[in-house]
Amino acid sequence: MPAPRTLLLTGAAGGLGTLMRDLLPRYGYELRLFDQLPVEGEPDAITADLADRPALREAVRGVDAILHLAGISVESSFENILRANIEGTYNLYEAAREEGVGRVVFASSNHAVGFTPRPQGADPLIPVDTPRRPDTFYGLSKSFGEDLAQLYWDKHGVETVSVRIGSCFAEPRTVRMLSLWLSPADGARLFHAALTAEGVGHTVVYGSSANTRLWWDLGAARALGYAPQDDSEPYAEKLIAEQGDLTPENPAHANLGGHFVTDPPIWPPGA
Ligand code: NAI
Ligand code: 15L
Fold first, then answer.
1. Topology of domain 6-261, per CATH?
2. What's the order of all strands across the beta sheet hosting 6-10?
3. Beta-bridge mates of residue 88
4. 167 CA to middle of ligand 2, Å?
5. CA 251: distance to chain centroid?
6. Beta bridge partners of 106
7. Which residues pair with 181 in a beta bridge?
8. Does residue 138 carry a catalytic annotation?
9. Which of 165, 239, 256 to mutate to test the pocket of ligand 2 (most atoms within 8 A of CB)?
10. Do 142 and 112 touch, CB atoms closer than 8 A?
């Protein structure tokens, strides 16, 4: 596949969107920005909600590919998740189909498989085909997004790489993130690989750096051409000294999804 030049970046005002606005142009992408919030310093960014289908259709018109980051990025009420992540992602795929955009990279999450026990001791790494076990309505919406991507490939020929992102921040913030950290530079490497690899159909990959304490198998991501350069290990001593190490007896430490697994559900306001 020729390298896409024009890329629609949804969620451009968010944490990951801000990191990628800086990093992706270095790979030659011309970015078109989309978010419900204004993007600081970017007067040409499209300010619209994923529910606004005409705005979304205009936003995708003429781009080579889409990096879909927009949505609620933590747990919320089912109603909020339904509107932003489930209906919003459906609207995005419909716009891509209608406008003939052939490649989407979808920001899925570790929380689509959050109830998967994390490896301990000599346990094998978690394979990418492990059964989906969402830990929240949020994780459920990512599971839906992956199935939607499969449908749009099988039925309409829209290709997607669903990247189950671990924790993409400038630095790992918790001991759990030592296993799941995706450095911003590796995030850009992985998204670039996902945007340019040939014949992906719908491919699901895990997204993290080459962490010493890795929990999951990066083979599917590497098969796209991703070669991670970073490792969270230099942050380990300080984080463990501050927070203590993970203990298998603590249910929030026993599964991939961390505290998302153990937090009480969020019901609609007023319920
Ligand atoms: P964020 O919350 O900082 O950014 C999300 C952006 O989406 C915000 O700018 C928000 O205004 C926008 N947005 C939300 N609902 C929208 C709607 N209805 N219409 C238009 N725009 C809307 O989240 P972050 O950390 O930047 O994550 C980006 C994506 O990556 C999210 O989809 C998140 O679920 C996913 N992800 C992120 C991880 C991370 O470690 N940062 C880990 C796993 C997944
Ligand atoms: C996610 O899916 C969230 O979007 C992000 O804010 C982090 O909580 C990350 O997972 C994580 O599990 O660390």
1. Rossmann fold (3.40.50)
2. 46-47, 30-35, 6-10, 65-68, 103-109, 159-165, 202-207
3. none
4. 5
5. 24
6. 68, 162
7. 167
8. yes
9. 165
10. yes
Q: How far apart are CA 54 and CA 94, in angstroms?
A: 11
Question: What is the Cα–Cα distance from 58 to 62, expressed in whole angstroms?
Answer: 9
Structure tokens at 52: 């606004």
pLDDT in 10s for each residue of the chain, 271 residues: 556 699 999 999 999 999 999 999 999 999 999 999 999 999 999 999 999 999 999 999 999 999 999 999 999 999 999 999 999 999 999 999 999 999 999 999 999 999 999 999 999 999 999 999 999 999 999 999 999 999 999 999 999 999 999 999 999 999 999 999 999 999 999 999 999 999 999 999 999 999 999 999 999 999 999 999 999 999 999 999 999 999 988 989 999 999 999 998 887 665 4
Tell whether ligand 1 has an atom less than 6 A from the beta carbon of residue 139.
no
CB 46 within 8 A of CB 92: no
What is the C-alpha separation between 12 and 59, in angstroms, rounded?
Answer: 13
Q: What gap in Å lies between CA 59 and CA 48, rounded to an integer?
A: 9
pLDDT at 267: 75
Domain range annotation of the chain: 6-261
Q: Which amino acid is at 140?
A: L
Nearest CA to ligand 2 atom 7: 167
Ligand number nearest CA of 92 is 1
Spatial distance between the Cα atoms of 180 and 214, rounded to a whole number of angstroms: 7
Q: Work out the number of other CB atoms within 10 angstroms of the CB of residue 62.
A: 12
Ligand 2 centre to CA of 135 (Å) is 12
- Which residues are 134's β-sheet partners? none
CA–CA distances in Å: residue 94 to residues 7, 9, 57, 257: 17, 16, 8, 30
Please state the atom number of ligand 1 nearest to the C-alpha of residue 111.
43
